[in-house]
Give the backbone structure.
Amino acid sequence: MKLKSNAFFLLLASLLLVTATGWIALPSAGLTWNTTTPAPKVQRYLYVVTPGVRNYLGYGGHGIQVFDIDNNHRFVKFIKTGGFSKDGKPSNVKGVDVSLATNCLYISTLEALQCIDLTTEKILWEKQYEGGVDRISISPDGQTIYMPSLEKEFWTVVNAKTGTVIKKIITNSGAHNTIYGPDGNFVYLAGLKSTMLNVADAKTHTVVKKVGPFGADIRPFTINGAQTLVYVNVNGLLGFEVGDLVSGKFLHRVVVEGFNIGEVKRHGCPSHGIGMTPDEKEIWLCDGANNRLHVFDNTVMPPVQKTSILVKDMPGWITFSLDGKYAYPSTGDVIDVKTRKIVASLEDQQYNDVQSEKMVEIHFAGNRAVAAGDQFGLGQVKHSAKN
């Protein structure tokens, strides 16, 4: 009886050991259990930086509003940021980007660039630069930032980890919007005082090509993943123009049909904001006067207008989720790309509307960023389609 009792307790202890350790080896039986801890679930969040519509605090206050993409874009948390002007008031946010290499979020304001650790959510550094800072872009390897001055003569190239200046690139074009090419070889520099798009070599940090001229000074723009085509907004046009990044030539002018150019509240041009779905099949265009997004078929050239979507306020920017399921105009509307329906509206913890022209998608595994989208609505097809 005592032997049976000891055997029972030995078996019970073994079961408890298996429960505690998960996977354990039993050589005599030829069986093994894996002791590896399962990988953490990837969480997908939308980071919306405010004030991202001029300095208007009524569109989300001052800081970062974080939303859960997989939970109907519900509010998750609010992160405090820097970015104050000399009078102590929150400054206009001009751009946002992410470096997976440094695990940091970067926010440009009128005066400065701030670096925020994505794990601790603490500001690591905030530096002011000559000429101010406009919409930044970070290299694919996360090491280098191209930083336009505030509509002045030059771009400043800085080290993403330290903020140290590497070089200044003078274009005399009214530095404004910047896109680092997805292959890391070229950076596209659009000034709002020039009809030409400057292309910089990312190794030498010198301008090696110009694209255009376009019909008027360049405003927001986007490129395809193969870096062969650029789609630009220009002053005075309800629509967009297309250029060839390889030859440097102007290709097409596309005008929105069925809508009139009207007065806009901001930016001074009819279309301020253009993005491409990640599969590059569609171009989505902002219409500031008519509070609409116009959708174009991009499988043909020039692209052909398909439909229009009414949004709740003036759209001044647009980007897309990494999987291409959602469109994110600056109005805070969340649009299902396939159905064209508004499926959610970004709201803070007090259920106030959140709007911003500066937002980016970030994926986390545990407490570290493992993937990030972009603020520009760039194409993600890395090879050119064969004719």
